[in-house]
Here is the input.
Amino acid sequence: MKFIQKLPIEARLNPSKHPVPTVWSEGGYSYRVQFECMASDYSILIECDRVDLVIEAAKKAIIEAWRIEHKFSRYQVDNTFSMIHSWPDVKQTLDQETAQLMLFSYHAHQVSGGLFDITSGILRQAWRFDGSDNLPSPEQIQTSLVHVGWEKLGWSPQSPDQLCLPKGMELDFGGIGKEYAVDKMLKLSLSIFGDVPVAVLINGGGDIACSGPRLDGQGWRVGIESLKADHTSDQIISLSSGALATSGDRHRFLLKSGVRYSHVLNPLTGWPVEKAPRSVTVAAPNCVNAGILATLSLLQGNNADAFLKSLAVPYWIYSERG
Amino acid sequence: MVVKGLEVAVVAVTKTMKKNHELAKVLAAASCALIGSLSTAHAEESWDVDSAFLLYSESDGRVSAAEPVISATKNYDSETRLNVKLVADTLTGASANGATPSDEAQTFTSPSGNGTYTAAVGDQPLDDTFRDTRVALSSNWNAPINRDWAYGVGGYVSKEHDYQSLGVSSSVSRYLNQKNTTLTLGLGAANDTINPEGGVPTGLFQVPESASSSEFAQRDDSESKSIMDAVFGLTQVVNRNTIMQFNYSINTSSGYLTDPYKILSVIDDDSTGNNYGGNYTVNNRNLYLYEKRPDSRLKQSLYWQTKHQFDNNDILDVSYRYMFDDWGITSHTIDAKYRFRFDHQYLEPQLRWYSQSKADFYHRYLDSSAYTEVDFASADYRLGDLDTYTIGLRYGYQFADETEFYTRFSLYHQESSGDDGYGKLTSQELYPGLDAAMLMIGYKF
Here is the structure.
């Protein structure tokens, strides 16, 4: 891999003040653009003989990723997320993109029987998954649960841009934000090339989407981490269309009296899902779709494997024993 | 009990499977709605099928045609594809046989020699036995050789009851200038066989009265022609929104190029007689001759096309073709389309103008004093001075699943011109115009 150039982006389009992205050559007409976003390493792989278009596409994709990150970040003060939360108990009008995310969250909530719930982020105030043995008390959990529950929102799918957010509740788009950014980056970068032959793969910290096979017709080689320290059971798969997303706890868990509490919380009980796999990777036509299926399968706990099987999608699962 | 328990369990599992299948579908749809549908643009190898139905009708009901077309393309990747196309058309109606209208009713021998048909006073002589069904199948394969070169090969076969065509084609393309420039060399060869009803008539020979005539006895059953063509093309990407193409092509045909069903009238040019400008008669029969064309033709053409996409996504497509051949025909074709694009729909008006100058051996009729001196002659209006105009409107609707419905309606107008004859002939309409309407309905999936 050979360093080619830095890819400077105007400060106003870099609200989270990330380092300058870099462009690398992987030989031939293969390029890799690396940058940071949502506390992960992102990379864009592009095969095309028009380097000017490669740069333009990468720039557009990075600006989009940073825009999405900033817009829904819980740690900013002047963004959409903070705006929504600074007007509790009143009817407010959401922008088109947020309304679309709400609609998607609604469908995911409906079909999962309430297991996927973007209002459950607040439970993390009770649960701190730092590898320690500090479990919250049942009272703490009950207090948090008061402010959890999609049906408590003043929102309906008939008018998805109208929201009344009860005081104390929080909407957390983090569960789909990264995958959403990956899909949007792919879409925007492809729009640059027109009829010029190109192959693109976006890797957002392990969540991946590609435009199709590489220019030589081969699939992209993608590694799936096994979580084992020696990586002996890492798998390399060939991705020639669609997307991959991984959901898992990696280093985020609690351990008490020999019981490992995963960071996957059941929003109905407020407690971690028992016997959830450590990590699930799912392939689907787009990254948002892959991500939601991976997340829902973790929420099935013990049944994750059977659940994934019934979906008839390619998946890779690593459980405690594995 | 055990069995029942198992049944219950099976039902439960099946229900879960079904439920989860629904869940997967809902989430797939919801995720597509969220991010838009672009990411599946070249997701997988699948067949793109374009099916269409064309209806063609000439005014006064002379010829009507119905033509189903199915074209299927399998894209293996952005540069490798296989296309298979099947066309079937059924033509019914009457076509001009080449003779001039007359101030007397005219009786013609049908092509098979087994019957006759009649044109009333002043009417265009039309051969109403014209009816044909054609089936054509073609296939093309295009693939890259390496980064800079690509090739294509194709084959073509078509069949009518009296005509067969078999062709092959190949092309090689070279990309230059970071694929902004493409040079293409294409070569094609075809062999056509014609086995007309009643056999192959003798050119410039009098149309006999019936199949019992000796002329019929000496006819061959079939004739053939071979065609070779070469195209040299240059495609240039001018900028992100504009693409331009130049082609030079050369096409040679040799063999039987005559239309066995077309005839010519011989007109009495004795200005002192009282039949001046009327049908010339021999042995009390009007003299009609079978047409005869040279046995070779060399055509060359130059073609220029530009497509431009505007900032609002509308597309302008303009082309011009100049063709000339050693039969003396030159032609100009100008075609312009403008596609207004809306969210899921488009509207595309089209204008086309074609203008042609006649072949050296085109004669609307032959003079009685000179008909024995011509080597070649045809009264086929398609070889005469000709202008055609097409105005069309196409509408398409693209569904969310990327399938497309489209329909196109066009009106076609044709005008011929030439010398108006003499004597009695001047009162006849020698160059009737033609109007036709076409309706096409198609669905791409």
